[in-house]
Amino acid sequence: MKSGLVLLLGLALVASCAAAEDAPCSYIVQGGDSLYSIAQRYGLGTDAVQKANPQLDPKTLIIRAGDVIALPCAGNATSGSSPLDLLSRRSDLSILFKAALAAGDEFIKTLNDTKLTATIFAPNDTYFEGLLEELNKTAAELLQDKPLLKDILAYHVVPGEALSLDDLDNKANLTTLLDGEFLIVNKPKDVVRLVTTSEQKIRVDNKELEAGNAIVHTVRGVLVPATAPIGDAVAPQDECERTVKEGDTLSNIAKEAGTTVDDLLKLNNLTDANFLKLGAQLVLFDSCI
Ligand SMILES: *[C@@H]1O[C@H](CO)[C@@H](O)[C@H](O)[C@H]1NC(C)=O
Ligand SMILES: *[C@@H]1O[C@H](CO)[C@@H](O)[C@H](O)[C@H]1NC(C)=O
Ligand SMILES: *[C@@H]1O[C@H](CO)[C@@H](O)[C@H](O)[C@H]1NC(C)=O
Ligand SMILES: *[C@@H]1O[C@H](CO)[C@@H](O)[C@H](O)[C@H]1NC(C)=O
Ligand SMILES: *[C@@H]1O[C@H](CO)[C@@H](O)[C@H](O)[C@H]1NC(C)=O
Ligand SMILES: *[C@@H]1O[C@H](CO)[C@@H](O)[C@H](O)[C@H]1NC(C)=O
Q1: Which residue of 4, 173, 237, 286 is surrounded by the most CB atoms within 10 Å?
Q2: How is the chain classified by DSSP, letter by letter?
């Protein structure tokens, strides 16, 4: 009897630790929730939850059903029961999570389906922030633009097949959820890139995440279809590399490629913008490395 009780207590302890580790990074507030009840549910301190949400009024801590709040989380999940579940458990994919919710019920339903068979490309928060900078928009402004979000997100989903990195064959033509818009796989050697209809070349990371029946690949840029109203804002990439020719300057190369001198310096480990070696191969974009 006594050992049974100890065992029960032991189980309760394990359960509460597991709950704390299991907190998602992005949580959708439900009716009747308070910051305190959410913190309790995941074995977190209310202070820690408040700190993760500086947008909340510190006096009232008011939250509304449907709001997305951040929770302290491990943030490195490699699998989830559905794509939406996986996104909620990744601290680096929080903008994509919010964008999926803002894109509307149909899209939420698609990504929340544990049986969805699909290949999904996921740009992390750094790349969304880069796009926002190019668009001169805030995240809040982007999240209000539902038609744009729907188009962009649909372009990141290839329905029908869960393709691993090995399955992404050179020159494969992937049909996305966005009508009439496709992605071409570019895989000359081991590196896999996606060529968009707006002529970006976006690197696919060497890491696969599981989401129910779907496979999620992180990618080094937001995929923008040619038909999106922001198609003009993204710089098309003809090449990933460029040989320095007679008469080149870093600023003319940057201008030609649609990037900046600073980015070229960083990407190529150069310290002096005025010293370019004739014949040197410059990498032009982050997504090319
Ligand atoms: C995530 O990170 C935690 C520690 O921060 C570690 O214990 C856990 O194993 C990691 N999980 C994965 C799937 O890498
Ligand atoms: C996004 O991925 C890039 C490249 O893998 C990495 O340098 C960056 O830190 C990541 N961003 C976040 C928010 O994790
Ligand atoms: C996703 O599905 C789960 C389980 O079916 C449900 O509890 C949850 O409310 C759904 N999430 C959204 C955002 O619809
Ligand atoms: C960016 O937008 C803000 C406010 O909408 C505006 O004041 C600013 O001039 C814009 N900057 C550029 C570079 O377009
Ligand atoms: C990819 O497939 C679509 C639809 O079948 C087609 O319209 C498009 O021309 C193809 N693109 C390339 C580069 O083959
Ligand atoms: C720049 O330096 C980093 C770290 O030393 C290295 O990993 C990277 O490959 C270098 N990039 C180029 C383009 O040489």
Answers
A1: 237
A2: -HHHHHHHHHHHHHHHHHHHHT--SEEEPPTT--HHHHHHHTT--HHHHHHT-TTS-TTT----TT-EEE-----B-SEESSHHHHHHTBGGGHHHHHHHHHT-HHHHHHHT-TT--EEEEEE-HHHHHHHHHHHT--HHHHHH-HHHHHHHHHTTEEES----TTT--TT-EEE-SSTT-EEEEE-SSS--EEE-TT--EEEEEEEEEEETTEEEEEESS----TTSTTTTTSPP-S-SEEE--TT--HHHHHHHHT--HHHHHHHTT-S-TT---TTPEEE--GGG-
